[in-house]
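Thread amino acids onto this structure.
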């Protein structure tokens, strides 16, 4: 984010008054003005000088304030643009990761089955049908995002707002990617509508990572809102016997970075790392969303 501009301090102009008083004293000394006349000249000169200084200072203060307000407006606009870019980056990552990533996994599974017809595997036709369905969904989402971006006056979000009612479907959806996931949701009523989209987004990202790097496997999604913080964990059992975890490719890590940004945006935290033979993503989110 851009740094908030600070108003510049303007130097005082007391030198003008001092110079004017000195000039009056010099003129009075040369002209032989008596003490009363000199006092009157000094008082009048000081009044004129102070008035000039005050007028000058007010003008400089108004100019400085205007300059600061302009800089503040530019700063706010730049930060709004950057925040919007981050939001677009997260949504595009979701589209590429959860759509194209799932297609990649299903295509790899079909290729594995074709190369090992004698081994246990799924019907390649089923994998192709899943690929077609996922591709259609991704295309629809991409078109909707483009429509929103081309309509700046449209107030619709880049993605429809998810609710806790969507969690079971999000968890079940990874089955086509070879992940048998189970959801444990506790005290769901304590999760407000402001926090629910973040919870859903973190679950979606965590399961997408499981599909990409560990499938076929099993995973457990736990969302517990009994305390002041919502505790979210996604733990997988690691790749199935005979399979190895998919290596991390170039550009990887953007999804985890985006997940941390989502958690931080609501005043929470997120960490991820190895857990036994598998991997665990863990987030702590305050039930009261930080503005």
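Threaded sequence (291 positions):
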């Amino acid at each position: 984010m851009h740094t908030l501009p600070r108003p510049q301090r303007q130097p005082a102009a007391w030198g003008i008054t001092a110079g004017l008083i000195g000039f009056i004293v010099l003129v009075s000394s040369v002209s032989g003005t008596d003490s009363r006349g000199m006092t009157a000249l000094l008082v009048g000169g000081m009044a004129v000088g102070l008035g000039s200084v005050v007028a000058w200072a007010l003008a400089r203060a108004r100019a400085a304030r205007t300059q600061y307000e302009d800089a503040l407006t530019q700063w706010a606009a730049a930060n709004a643009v950057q925040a919007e870019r981050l939001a677009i980056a997260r949504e595009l990552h979701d589209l590429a990761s959860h759509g194209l990533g799932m297609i990649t996994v299903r295509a790899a599974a079909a290729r594995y089955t074709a190369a090992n017809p004698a081994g246990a595997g799924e019907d390649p036709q089923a994998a192709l049908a899943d690929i077609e369905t996922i591709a259609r969904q991704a295309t629809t989402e991409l078109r909707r995002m483009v429509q929103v971006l081309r309509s700046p006056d449209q107030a619709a979000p880049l993605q429809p707002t998810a609710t806790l009612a969507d969690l079971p479907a999000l968890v079940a959806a990874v089955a086509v990617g070879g992940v048998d996931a189970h959801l444990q949701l506790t005290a769901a009523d304590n999760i407000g509508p402001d926090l629910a989209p973040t919870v859903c987004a973190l679950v979606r990202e965590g399961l997408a990572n499981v599909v990409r790097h560990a499938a076929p496997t099993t995973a457990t999604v736990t969302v517990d809102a009994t305390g002041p913080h919502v505790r979210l964990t996604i733990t997988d059992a690691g790749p199935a016997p005979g399979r190895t975890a998919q290596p991390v490719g170039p550009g990887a890590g953007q999804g985890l970075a985006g997940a941390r940004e989502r958690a931080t945006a609501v005043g929470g935290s997120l960490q991820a790392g190895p857990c036994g033979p598998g991997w665990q993503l863990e987030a702590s989110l305050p039930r009261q969303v930080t503005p």
